[in-house]
Design brief:
- The protein is built from 14 helices and 13 strands.
- The protein is of the alpha/beta class.
- Keywords: Transferase.
């Protein structure tokens, strides 16, 4: 009997390398053959170097072209037939739905991870209704659904989807060794950082509005922006960079050097599964200012490790940034250390890895 095979279905190389690498490494160490289906990205080569087998896929994360969706479902069925995996692990919306449908059709065990519901579900309407139907079909035979926050899980409970197969995890967890507690910088100049895909629903508009106001009122501030632009913000970001309102760095492979010089991470997102940016920032002992929403608020202890702001409210964001600026350095540093302690106690990535390995072993019995 050959090695048992694990197939990961993801929509981006970063989804697996940055947030599931430790699981991949553990599975490889335990003798599994690991396959990864993802659109190609620079992290794929790193995963191949670890010992993974790679399968390229043409996947439009946001498109709703019926022909493309049908092709994706056919593709998943084909690779599952070819590989004959012991279990399939799916992440993000399209791999969850179409990977789930493919596994259901072929009788292959699978474990899904709800990293977020997406705007089509959150905003309601016809797309929410369609999503409910698809999730019910896709998850009819699912072995386990891991949720990253209780709100997402409640949506499945309210709609009677895959009942009895739910388990809540602390997001993707955070690697506490990779993101270690960083020394807090001097505060002659106070530096803020926004790290995310650049899109409206990540709160980039509110962050830029706050940056313009604060920079003019408090010249000794710096506002960094890290991430790739998924929507049409590139020209605006470059203009604000030229005007020295922000420092725009684009997509960065390693955010730790930016966390090292920053005093606070600002993440005014509209919806999250469980924000990895915040987990990594808190693990690095950085205070947080973020939206009071599920997937963000669980990471912050209000007034202890950071501040919560009303979603979509740039004025509230400005007020919280000003409140932070007024704090003495020692208190800012204490906020960061409180965040680090919370990560150690509640969000260690090993919790997530252990849950997956235990579930996979249960299937083999």
């Amino acid at each position: 009997m050959g090695k048992q095979k694990i197939l990961f279905l993801v929509n981006h190389d970063v989804v697996i390398y940055n947030f599931r690498r430790e699981l991949v490494e553990r599975l490889l160490e335990e003798g599994y053959e690991v396959y990864i289906s993802s659109p190609y990205g620079e992290r794929i080569d790193d995963l191949i170097e670890l010992g993974c087998n790679y399968l390229n896929v043409d996947l439009n994360r946001h498109g709703l072209n019926v022909v493309q969706e049908w092709k994706l479902l056919r593709y998943y069925k084909q690779i599952i037939r070819d590989i004959k995996p012991t279990v399939v692990l799916t992440y993000t919306i399209k791999p969850n739905i179409y990977g789930g449908l493919a596994c259901k059709a072929l009788g292959v065990p699978y474990i899904a991870n709800i990293t977020g519901l997406g705007s089509s579900v959150v905003n309601g309407g016809i797309m929410q209704a369609v999503s409910k139907v698809l999730y019910k079909w896709a998850f009819k035979d699912v072995r386990r659904i891991f949720f990253q926050n209780s709100s997402n899980q409640q949506f499945f409970v309210d709609n009677n989807i895959a009942m009895g197969k739910h388990e809540l995890l602390p997001g993707s967890g955070v690697n506490l060794n990779q993101f270690s507690s960083l020394e807090y910088p001097d505060d002659n100049v106070t530096e803020f950082v926004f790290i995310s895909r650049i899109m409206r629903e990540k709160g980039i508009g509110e962050y830029l509005e706050a940056a313009k106001y604060i920079k003019e009122k408090y010249p000794n501030t710096v506002f960094h922006v890290l991430g790739f632009s998924e929507e049409d913000y590139e020209e605006q970001l470059r203009l604000l960079h030229q005007q020295e309102v922000i420092q725009y760095h684009g997509m960065q492979r390693d955010i730790r050097k930016y966390l090292a010089v920053s005093h606070c991470t600002v993440h005014p997102s509209y919806h999250e599964g469980m924000s990895n940016v915040l987990l990594e920032s808190a693990a690095s002992a950085r205070p947080i200012i973020t939206s009071n929403i599920n997937g963000c608020k669980e990471i912050v202890d209000e007034n202890t490790s950071g501040y919560l702001v009303e979603k979509g409210n740039s004025q509230d964001l400005i007020e919280k940034i000003e409140k932070f600026l007024r704090l003495p350095k020692k208190q800012k540093e204490s906020m960061g250390l409180a965040g680090r302690t919370k990560m150690e106690e509640e969000f260690d990535r090993n919790i997530v890895v252990d849950a997956y390995v235990e579930e996979i072993r249960r299937m083999e019995l």
